TrEMBL record:
Pfam families registered for this protein in UniProt: ABC_tran
UniProt record similarity statement: Belongs to the ABC transporter superfamily.
Organism of this sequence: Zemynaea arenosa
PANTHER family cross-referenced by the UniProt entry: ABC TRANSPORTER, ATP-BINDING PROTEIN (PTHR43335)
Name the UniProt record assigns to this protein: ABC transporter ATP-binding protein
InterPro entries, A to Z: AAA+_ATPase, ABC_transporter-like_ATP-bd, ABC_transporter-like_CS, P-loop_NTPase
Amino acid sequence: MELRIRNLSKTYANGVVALDKVSLTIPTGMFGLLGPNGAGKSTLMRTLATLQECDSGSVFLGDIDVLDEKDEVRKILGYLPQDFGVYPKVTAYELLDHFAVLKGISHRARRREVVDGLLQQTNLFEVRHQRLGGFSGGMKQRFGIAQALLGDPQLIIVDEPTAGLDPMERVRFHNLLSDISAEKTVLLSTHIVSDVADLCSNMAIINKGKVLLCGEPQQLVFDIDGKIWARFVSKQELPIFQKNHAVISTRLLAGRTLIHVYADEDPGDGFEDIAGDLEDVYFATITGRNTSALAGAVC
Ligand SMILES: Nc1ncnc2c1ncn2[C@@H]1O[C@H](COP(=O)(O)OP(=O)(O)OP(=O)(O)O)[C@@H](O)[C@H]1O
């Protein structure tokens, strides 16, 4: 099911513009919404999940008017919020069974089938009679996905799900999301570029409430080909380079400072042309250097 967001805007009572005419078309499959903290991701996710009102704009999920027909949306929506809390003293089975009742699956045998199936799908069946309080971060997030999948939703929204997971759990969680997105629309909000690079067939970069760029990750990387230049600098040299070049990122690599700059042509000063990746796309866009992208973003 395609999700079409048009000119969605939201200003909070304190004057913060969290969404500024956001327009996005989100097809079936996994869509990554990438942006730094405070970009407006959660505001957008909560609005799509019918938990919050916006000021203006429209959202359609297939033929359903998301802003107007909230009950219809809730029937086909699964949502894993950023701060998904669990009751520590109940078991995974008990809580998922409880959520299933709330979701309207009243027939006992049918419910058991659904709950068992979801626990298997999320690899929690073996631990289904353990209390949730003893679950690791990754297990809790997988449980969060199990509850989001109740009722066989067509649209699944997951808000920053991998923050705090160890590398093994992240891979496991990625595999789970990837399986789900084969036939559903999955909207993944994150500030972790590699989540999007690993998983998403389409993506958008958002900052300060505005969509800056959207497209297929591979195409966006292809578009910056020949424009990313790198070199090591000393700590003392760094301010000079930052003044003279369009620096998009600086990071320590084995104790030395590696800088990447964005330039259409060789910037001189000993820089080498490197193959850019999605992280370069992200930083070039967030720092406002990827200006061709800004002008051409049709989402
Ligand atoms: N209820 C609120 N009242 C006032 N301002 C808010 C409220 N909720 C969010 N904001 C502000 O709106 C902006 C967007 O916040 P939002 O939580 O949507 O961003 P985010 O991209 O999800 O960031 P994070 O990853 O930190 O959650 C931020 O500047 C935030 O401080």
